[in-house]
Amino acid sequence: MTRYVFGAAGSRDRSAWDAAGGGAADIVAAVLRSQGFKNVFTSPPSVRRCADPIVVTCGGWERFSRQVEEVERGMRHVDVLVCCEDPRDAEATACSAERDLRRADWTGATSGWHMRVVSVDTDAPVPRGRDGSGRWLRGFSASLTIARDFDE
User: Rounded to whole angstroms, how far apart are CA atoms 62 and 39?
Assistant: First the structure.
């Protein structure tokens, strides 16, 4: 389980995190939802909640530079995994999600908790086997160039 620590005094809470747009995975999930994908989650849901989810998870942070404006620029890697009963549905959904992320207008609502997405680069979707319940997995990675505040 991910634990969020907000400042030295813990003065900020999860609602402030959500109100600011969350993290990189939350931003990607919001962009996918705005493109018409309704079953996007940032953690795997139960099969009862959603049988064919799209799960967005966040990878590591790689800093490129610190800038004078109290901002650092770097790369955040995000994985997008599509889970479907039919392998053709998984492939079609993953290809569509990748294309929509690549073509999305990232100048709109692309800010999160002390961060702003500058650009995105995606890999082609690839098969990732099957999950424990036998559903087909197809996924791709996205590399987000992010400018984030480092004043905290």
Answer: 29
The Cα–Cα gap between 70 and 145 comes to 17
pTM score of the predicted model: 0.80
Mean pLDDT in order along the chain per 10 residues (152 residues)? 40 51 81 93 89 91 80 89 95 96 76 77 95 92 85 56
Which residues contact residue 149 at a Cβ distance below 8 angstroms, ignoring those fewer than 6 apart? 70, 71, 114, 115
Burial class (CB in 10 A: 0-12, 13-18, 19+), 9: exposed
Alpha carbon separation from 59 to 10, 80, 141 (Å, rounded): 24, 11, 10
Strand bridging mode 54-67 / 40-41: parallel
> Of 146, 152, 1, whose CA–CA distance to 74 is shortest?
146
| Secondary structure E strands in the chain | 40-41, 54-67, 71-84, 111-112, 115-122, 126-130, 136-149
CB count, 10 Å around CB of 15?
8
The span from the CA of 43 to the CA of 55, in Å, is: 6
